[in-house]
Structure formats: structure tokens, C-alpha cells
């Protein structure tokens, strides 16, 4: 089994290998994006103003949760794939155990946030006693305190992806998404004899789906992931390995966490133009996940291929994977750009958009989506830097795009008093990001394979 997997990762044609690993992940990512959108659609039907606003306020915390869970798993995944490429299977088993240890630490952090910090956070964007405040605190408290499901789900998915079993990873994500989609209307509107719980019901549906997916992830790893053996003794912390995993994972956490800082800052800027502008921003982020999630799925397929072949010093396969991944991502992002340009009112209509929201939102979607033209290559380049052990480059790119350029540009443009101009900050920031990505990608490829020109 182990030798067969090594041969597949090291010898199968790159297009066949990349797409065979990535397509199941992409499908699951699309379903993941779909259930995020469905979640917001149902909440918008329940209360298009305060309900949509609550999910917009919750987004930075939820994004931070995903940042921590995925970022910690990235460190595990990169070292795991590299160890398998080097045929060091004992070390791979220990790395898998350390991934679960870090997962428990990540959950403990969000348990504390859910118990002690939700109300102060919500008060920065909503007045106490309002529906918006109540919905936001209810939703965030539930998804944080019960977030152990999503942490387990993510780490078990990454273990399967590291050994090329992305079909089973897809099954894990599909199970959670389907459960959430089924439970959403039942718990939000009180179908089948359940009490109508509104936004609180959406939160419960989310965590139940995550817990079921996490439990299935553990079962599948025990049943089918024979390349990695999960043992209790490997859950005890091995600090040298943890240090190495965190060196890769923390930049990834910070890189994605920057997105939480960005969305929180944008909420503060946009609330000055009224809740409609903030709600438009929240809806945009739900819609753009349908565009970006498949590209992230492609990246998840690329990481084990690049890391494995880097460990095996098969430079041609690394370069071929990066080129094909970049081309695929760019083409897909162009399709997303076309949809946002041609169908903004249709997209906003799914969220029970008012006439004011349609007026503000159609301009916003068209202007922000200009950034899609450049984003596909940037995402793949950043992912490649992580897979080759240079996560710091990805961190610099994210800081530059979202904190150094995007937020200051949005703030300065907001001083005009015209909310339409604020959306231009997104393409401005993405063009800067593209230039940084080209520079760092060439640099990391040359340093990783000094005899080969990038």
C-alpha cells in the first residue's frame, strides 16, 4: 500500500494526478460554499436585515476559526507529505498524532472566546438590546463553544488528503454540508414539530453538521487510511515536531486570520454608510466563497503533490504541478468574474435583497470582482510557497494585500462619502498582491531547486 501510494504521487502524470486528487476536494468545497450560501439565504428569509447583519458580524470570528483549524492542519499536512515522500513512515505516524494534539489546543482557544469574549466583540458593531446584537451573540456563542466538530473535521480531512485519499475527504465535507442544509430550514423556521429558533437554529445546524463530519472523519481514517496509523501514544506532545509544524502552520494561521482583521475593519468602515452597505459586504463574502472555494480545493490537491515531490527532489514534477494549477485557477476565476459582472442582481436576489441592497450591491459585486482576474494566480503562488516551506512569503503577501493596501485604501476612499468608491480597494489590493506573488514564487522555486531556473 505504501509503495503504491509513493509511486502514484511520484510517477503518475501531473494532470491525471492533480485532477484525480483535486476534483473530489473541489466538489466538496463547492458543496461547502453552497451550504454557506444556503445558510445565509434561509437566515435572510427569516430576517433580511438583522439576520443577514448577524451573520456578517459573525463572519470574522468564523473566518478566524477556519484560519486556526486549517492553518494548524497545513503544518501537519506539509510535514506528513514530505515524510511519506522520504519513506519515513514512522515519523509520519507521529506527525499525525501531533496534528490531533494541536487540534485540541485550537478548540480550547475558541471555547474560551465563546465563553468570555463574544459580547464585547459584538458590541463594537451592534447596540446592546437590539435584534442585531441578540442574533449575533446567540449565533457566535454556539458556533464557538461547540467548535470541536470543525477542528476534528479539518484535521481528519487533511490526513486523508496527505495520502491521496481525497475522495474520502470529499465524503467527510459532503456529510457535514448535507446535514447542515437539511437542518437549516427545520431549525430556523420550526418544521417537523421543532420550535422555530431563527438565527440560533442556523448555528445549531452548523455545529451538528460539523460534529457528524468530524466523527465520520475519525472512522474513515481508522478504516481506510492504512498509510497512517493513529496511536494514542503519538498524541502526547513532541515539542521539536510541534515547533516544526507551527513554523509552517502559524504563518498560515496568521495569513488567514488577516482576513478576519480585514472583514472586521471593513464592517467598521461600511457601517458608516448604513447597515445596508455592511450587509452587502457580508453577502459578497458568501457569494465569493463559491468562486474561491474550488480554487482552495485545487490548492489542497496541489500541496501534497508539491510537498511529496519536493521531498523526493523531483523538481520537474513540482514545476509542472504549479503551472497546471495556476492555469486552472485563472480560468476558473475568470468564469467567476463573468458571473459577477453579468448577473449581480440575480445573485443578490437569493438573499431577499431590498431595492436599496440591489442598488448598492450590484455596483459592489461588479467592482470587487475585477480582483478575480488577478486572484487565481496569486492564490496558487501563495500555496506553492507554503508547500515548499516558505510560508513567510505567503504571510507577507497577505499582510501586504489586506492590511497594508486594502484597508487603508478603503478608508481613504470612504472619505469621499461615496460607498461605490470603497469597493475599488479590492482590485487595487489584488494588483499589488499579484506583483508580490510573482516575485516570491520565482524566488522560492530558485532557492528550492538551485540547479533549475524558475
Structure report:
The radius of gyration is 21 Å and the shape is globular. It has one domain (12-448). Helix content is 83%, strand content 0%. The protein has helices at residues 2-11, 14-46, 50-85, 89-116, 118-123, 131-145, 148-162, 166-189, 199-224, 239-271, 275-311, 315-342, 344-349, 355-368, 372-387, 391-414, 419-422, 425-448. The chain contains 18 helices and no strands. It is mainly α.
Number of strands: 0
Can you give the mean pLDDT? 86
Oligomeric nature of the chains = single chain
Low-pLDDT stretches: 1-5
Helix content: over 70%
Number of separate helices: 18
Proportion in β-strands: under 5%
Largest sheet: none
Overall SS class = mainly alpha
How many structural domains can be distinguished in the coordinates? 1
- Compute the CA-based radius of gyration: 21 Å
Tag the structure with descriptive keywords.
single chain; 454 residues; mainly alpha; 18 helices
Helices and strands, with pairings:
Elements: H1 2-11, H2 14-46, H3 50-85, H4 89-116, H5 118-123, H6 131-145, H7 148-162, H8 166-189, H9 199-224, H10 239-271, H11 275-311, H12 315-342, H13 344-349, H14 355-368, H15 372-387, H16 391-414, H17 419-422, H18 425-448
Amino acid at each position: 500500500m505504501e509503495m503504491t501510494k509513493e509511486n502514484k504521487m511520484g510517477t503518475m502524470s501531473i494532470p491525471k494526478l492533480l485532477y484525480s486528487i483535486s476534483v473530489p476536494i473541489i466538489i466538496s468545497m463547492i458543496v461547502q460554499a453552497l451550504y454557506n450560501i444556503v445558510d445565509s439565504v434561509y437566515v435572510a428569509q427569516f430576517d433580511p436585515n438583522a439576520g443577514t447583519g448577524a451573520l456578517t458580524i459573525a463572519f470574522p470570528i468564523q473566518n478566524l476559526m477556519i484560519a486556526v483549524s486549517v492553518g494548524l492542519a497545513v503544518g501537519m499536512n506539509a510535514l506528513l507529505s514530505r515524510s511519506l515522500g522520504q519513506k519515513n513512515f514512522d515519523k509520519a505516524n507521529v506527525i499525525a498524532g501531533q496534528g490531533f494534539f494541536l487540534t485540541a489546543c485550537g478548540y480550547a482557544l475558541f471555547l474560551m472566546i465563546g465563553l468570555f469574549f463574544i459580547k464585547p466583540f459584538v458590541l463594537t458593531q451592534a447596540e446592546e438590546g437590539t435584534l442585531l446584537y441578540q442574533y449575533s451573540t446567540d449565533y457566535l456563542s454556539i458556533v464557538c463553544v461547540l467548535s470541536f466538530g470543525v477542528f476534528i473535521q479539518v484535521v481528519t480531512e487533511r490526513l486523508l488528503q496527505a495520502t491521496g485519499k481525497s475522495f474520502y475527504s470529499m465524503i467527510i465535507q459532503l456529510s457535514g454540508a448535507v446535514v447542515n442544509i437539511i437542518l437549516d430550514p427545520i431549525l430556523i423556521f420550526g418544521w417537523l414539530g421543532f420550535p422555530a429558533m431563527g438565527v440560533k437554529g442556523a448555528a445549531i445546524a452548523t455545529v451538528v453538521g460539523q460534529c457528524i463530519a468530524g466523527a465520520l472523519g475519525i472512522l474513515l481514517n481508522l478504516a481506510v487510511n492504512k498509510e497512517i496509523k493513529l496511536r494514542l501514544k503519538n498524541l502526547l506532545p513532541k515539542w521539536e515536531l510541534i515547533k516544526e509544524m507551527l513554523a509552517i502552520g502559524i504563518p498560515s494561521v496568521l495569513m488567514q486570520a488577516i482576513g478576519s482583521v480585514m472583514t472586521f475593519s471593513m464592517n467598521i468602515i461600511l457601517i458608516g454608510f448604513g447597515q445596508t452597505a455592511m450587509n452587502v459586504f457580508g453577502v459578497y463574502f458568501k457569494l465569493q466563497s463559491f468562486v474561491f472555494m474550488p480554487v482552495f480545493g485545487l490548492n489542497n490537491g496541489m500541496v501534497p503533490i508539491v510537498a511529496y515531490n519536493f521531498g523526493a527532489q523531483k523538481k520537474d514534477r513540482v514545476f509542472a504541478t504549479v503551472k497546471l494549477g495556476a492555469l486552472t485557477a485563472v480560468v476558473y476565476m475568470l468564469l467567476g468574474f463573468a458571473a459577477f459582472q453579468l448577473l449581480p442582481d440575480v445573485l443578490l436576489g437569493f438573499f431577499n435583497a431590498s431595492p436599496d441592497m440591489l442598488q448598492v450591491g450590484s455596483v459592489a459585486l461588479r467592482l470587487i470582482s475585477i480582483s478575480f482576474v488577478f486572484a487565481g494566480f496569486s492564490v496558487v503562488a501563495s500555496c506553492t510557497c507554503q508547500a515548499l516551506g516558505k510560508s513567510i512569503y505567503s504571510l507577507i503577501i497577505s499582510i501586504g494585500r489586506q492590511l497594508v493596501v486594502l484597508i487603508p485604501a478603503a478608508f481613504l476612499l470612504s472619505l469621499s462619502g461615496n460607498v461605490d468608491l470603497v469597493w475599488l480597494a479590492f482590485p487595487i489590493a489584488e494588483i499589488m498582491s499579484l506583483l508580490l506573488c510573482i516575485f516570491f514564487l520565482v524566488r522560492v522555486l530558485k532557492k528550492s531547486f538551485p540547479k533549475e531556473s524558475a
